[in-house]
Amino acid sequence: MSPRPEPLDPTAVDDDRTRELLEEAEAGWYGDGAFFGAMAHCPEIFEHVVAAFESFGCGANVDTELLELMRLKVAETHQCAYCATVRTLEVRDAVAPKEDAVFGEIDPDELSRREYLAVSLAERLSTDPHKLSDDFFAELGEAFTEAEIVELLLFGSLEVGLDRFCIALELQPTDESAYPDHVEYPLENPRPKTS
User: Fold this and answer.
1) Would the pTM count as exceeding 0.85?
2) Which one, of 182, 129, 171, lies nearest residue 7 by Cα?
3) For the segment 66-105, what is each residue's pLDDT rounded down to a tens digit?
4) Nearest-10 crossing angle of helices 113-127, 146-169
5) How far apart are CA 166 and CA 101, in angstroms?
6) Which of these, 57, 83, 55, 53, lies nearest to 71 by C-alpha position?
7) What is the 8-class DSSP label of residue 90?
8) Which of 34, 60, 100, 148 would suit a FRET pair with 53, their CA atoms being 20 to 30 Å apart?
């Protein structure tokens, strides 16, 4: 048994709201409860993190598909096996044809200009945010409003930190999910959903 904190499942918590959020995670979000179950050790923080996640992609132009492409690039860059394995169910089918353009060298020919810029931002945040130049921000400004740029930065930064959270725990998908029961850290190649 690992000395790292293990994710909680809904039957292991006393708090009704935490249990509800964990049950929602098993059926929605990624179709896997491990990520949310790990955060559930700190119920108050967990609830706020979920609320923050729910607020992204609610604007008119930064949609969940764009954020999912960013999430996948961050996962690949950090070699987070869990994050690169699970998919946001709501947009999984729409994003699947674009995954090859995100993993490895970003392919601008297979992505819209906005997608390319957002994925490039995710990669730069993950590797060296000091290299985010004024020229790159000028490019972002041609495709996004300032509010959208800030949303992308906030989302990407949150993903960078939470990838490291998952890596530190060597988080594994739950046995109940449709994902592989065991993923290897560090991730060598992004693994798509198995079904």
Assistant:
1) yes
2) 171
3) 999 999 999 999 999 999 999 999 999 999 999 999 999 9
4) 50
5) 24
6) 83
7) G
8) 100
